[in-house]
Amino acid sequence: xxxxxxxxxxxxxxxxxxxxxxxxxxxxxxxxxxxxxxxxxxxxxxxxxxxxxxxxxxxxxxxxxxxxxxxxxxxxxxxxxxxxxxxxxxxxxxxxxxxxxxxxxxxxxxxxxxxxxxxxxxxxxxxxxxxxxxxxxxxxxxxx
Length: 144
Known about the structure:
Number of helices: 5
Largest sheet: 5 strands, antiparallel
Helix content: 40-55%
Order of helices and strands: HEHEEHEEHH
Strand content: 15-25%
Oligomer: single chain
CATH topology: TATA-Binding Protein
CATH architecture: 2-Layer Sandwich
Radius of gyration: 18 Å
CATH class: Alpha Beta
Distance between the termini: 56 Å
Number of domains: 1
Shape: globular
Strand order of the largest sheet: 1-5-4-3-2
């Protein structure tokens, strides 16, 4: 049996087991509610990042303007990220957020450990250990 045939045979089992489903947030996402408007949360993220001399890379509207995607970077972990291989730059920036209204404002952030899921490497694990508490603190402050 070829790999292609085996893959085609196993694909329905993967979907049936729920491995390939995306029902909602899991441990790779932080989702925080906020009493602020989405615009206020985005502005708070920008201030927070700039005050700490991180990089505020981009903000843009998606889903017909209903969601603001925000890209940030903490350059201090760059050395660890690139030590895992130049190809890992495809996962950058390490800070990916979405701000939206879903029965109230929510800010969702991709947990930086997504990088170690996609590319297990001790350098990335070190970067995640440094980034996770910094990003968690940022989310708590900008959402409040």
